[in-house]
């Protein structure tokens, strides 16, 4: 079964969020299960491209409205990522360093999609299925089925995965001419709220759409930045499949970023050693429960509540708990956290920015990981924490609700709360402090977490079953 994954991001080539982690892992595990899955993404002038060898496998020219574009399809020669990697390079448009935030971002991603379809069409390839990810590839299903240029591809099934339904990539009808030779009687399939909406169009036109957790599928009908009615109408076309994690990368026994490796049999010793190194680095005591936050400091993640919740917790518990924050984003939140570091130097520290090695050490050394998210389609951080026997403290939403069971319930191992509020966060911190004092219970939960399976093997199997339902006699 030949599958193409289309995405704006893919780890380790270019990453902003969880989209990159998914696209960088899912195809690899699908290939291990017997598929022939490849990734197609825009060319970015980044480290991975310079350090690896690529070959040009196709050259062509296309139109973006009246603008003529020349493009190349580059393939990484060794398939070192566990799948074929193809990059769409367009001089002057898709050959830059950053992924997002250019003034002509709309043109970048529309051109990316057109060049992909031109390549597949003109080279005579007939994949069994095309899997699009987020709005950056959301126009592909419409163009495949309703552009005269791509009639040869019109029978190919498409699956569209929504990693974050808050972002639609919408633009005005004045740019309709960017889409090549379309059936104008079908333009209603592009429309939402008076404009062209790639995410809405993908949901309408794809054969099946998926979300990155079952709960998020339900939540889109009530919170999707204006597409709620569409998701309600199309809900029977959707499936929720929880993301997996790459258990080869996230392996406490082999992770090269950890100073101390550990197994389920050596959890106590291994985590304490990592915790000691981490606390020494940030001038914190390793004898107290360490609660960490890793992620973007944005309202979506609930990070704006962290300063007040941390200060209230430290006031309530005195010298009995420590906090460590790794992230960047909203300037006001960054400043408030820095002030807490100054006010409580023995109990709170902050690293503004992102460091992959430090993140691994925090997952392995912290006792708890706090995720007070307002929106969390799936979440990977809690899965990394579980993998490294760190108790997740999460708001009950989206994938957090689907992957974390409160330790007060049968088979539970985490801490869940319902409301995005300082009160709920501090109440959960209090539960964490009390739980930490029960070393026997903590060890029991840690062993339980390390026995759970959130690997891509499970998730890849669910995607393959979905593909098979769309492709007869596979």
Automatic annotation (TrEMBL):
Keyword Phosphoprotein among record annotations: no
Region forming the signal peptide: none
Domain Starch synthase catalytic positions: 2-228
Domain Glycosyl transferase family: 281-441
Key words, A-Z: Glycogen biosynthesis, Glycosyltransferase, Transferase
Enzyme class: transferase
Pathway stated in the Swiss-Prot or TrEMBL entry: Glycan biosynthesis; glycogen biosynthesis
Residue ranges that the Swiss-Prot or TrEMBL entry lists as coiled coil: none
Annotated EC: 2.4.1.21
Domain of life: Bacteria
Biological process according to GO: glycogen biosynthetic process
Pfam families (UniProt xref): Glyco_transf_5, Glycos_transf_1
Molecular function, one GO term: alpha-1,4-glucan glucosyltransferase (ADP-glucose donor) activity
Record-listed ADP-alpha-D-glucose binding positions: 15
Recorded catalytic activity of this chain's protein: [(1->4)-alpha-D-glucosyl](n) + ADP-alpha-D-glucose = [(1->4)-alpha-D-glucosyl](n+1) + ADP + H(+)
InterPro entries: Glyco_trans_1 (IPR001296), GS/SS (IPR011835), Starch_synth_cat_dom (IPR013534)
Gene3D superfamilies: Glycogen Phosphorylase B
Record HAMAP family: Glycogen_synth
NCBIfam families on file: glgA (TIGR02095)
The family this protein is said to belong to: Belongs to the glycosyltransferase 1 family. Bacterial/plant glycogen synthase subfamily.
Functional note: Synthesizes alpha-1,4-glucan chains using ADP-glucose.
Full protein name: Glycogen synthase
Species of origin: Mucilaginibacter glaciei
């Amino acid at each position: 079964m030949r599958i193409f994954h289309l995405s704006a991001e893919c780890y380790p080539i270019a990453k902003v969020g969880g989209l990159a982690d998914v696209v960088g892992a899912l195809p690899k595990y699908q290939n291990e299960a017997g598929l022939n899955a490849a990734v197609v993404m825009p060319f970015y002038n980044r480290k991975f491209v310079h350090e690896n060898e690529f070959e040009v496998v196709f050259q062509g020219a296309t139109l973006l409205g009246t603008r003529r574009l020349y493009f190349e399809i580059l393939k990484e020669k060794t398939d070192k990522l566990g799948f074929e990697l193809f990059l769409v390079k367009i001089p002057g448009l898709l050959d830059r360093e950053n992924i997002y935030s250019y003034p002509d971002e709309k043109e970048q991603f529309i051109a990316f999609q057109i060049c992909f379809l031109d390549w597949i069409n003109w080279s005579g390839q007939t994949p069994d299925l095309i899997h699009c990810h987020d709005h950056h590839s959301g126009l592909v299903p419409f163009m495949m089925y309703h552009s005269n240029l791509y009639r040869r591809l019109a029978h190919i099934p498409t699956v569209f995965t929504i990693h974050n339904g808050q972002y639609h990539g919408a633009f005005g009808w004045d740019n309709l001419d960017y889409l090549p030779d379309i059936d104008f009687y079908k333009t209603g399939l592009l429309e939402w709220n008076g404009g062209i909406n790639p995410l809405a169009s993908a949901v309408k036109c794809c054969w099946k759409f998926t979300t990155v957790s079952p709960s998020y599928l339900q939540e889109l009908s009530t919170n999707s930045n204006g597409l709620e009615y569409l998701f309600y109408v199309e809900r029977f076309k959707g499936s929720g499949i929880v993301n997996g994690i790459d258990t080869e990368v996230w392996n406490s026994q082999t992770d090269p970023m950890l100073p101390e490796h550990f197994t389920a049999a050596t959890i106590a010793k291994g985590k304490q050693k990592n915790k000691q190194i981490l606390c020494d680095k940030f001038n914190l005591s390793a004898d107290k429960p360490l609660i960490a936050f890793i992620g973007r400091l944005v309202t979506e993640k609930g990070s704006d509540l962290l300063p007040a919740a941390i200060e209230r917790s430290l006031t309530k518990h005195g010298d009995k708990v420590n906090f460590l924050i790794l992230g960047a984003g909203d300037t006001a939140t960054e400043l408030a956290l820095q002030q807490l570091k100054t006010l409580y130097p023995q109990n709170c520290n902050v690293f503004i920015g992102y460091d992959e090695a430090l993140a691994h050490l925090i997952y392995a050394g912290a006792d708890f990981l706090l995720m007070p998210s307002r929106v969390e389609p799936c979440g990977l951080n809690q899965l990394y924490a579980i993998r490294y026997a760190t108790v997740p403290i999460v708001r009950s939403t989206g994938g957090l609700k689907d992957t974390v069971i409160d330790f007060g319930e049968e088979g539970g191992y985490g801490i869940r709360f319902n409301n995005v509020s300082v009160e709920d966060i501090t109440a959960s911190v209090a539960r964490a402090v009390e739980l930490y004092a029960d070393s026997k219970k903590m060890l029991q939960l840690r062993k339980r977490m390390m026995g759970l399976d959130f690997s891509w093997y499970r998730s890849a199997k669910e995607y393959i079953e979905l593909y098979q339902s769309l492709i007869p006699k596979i």
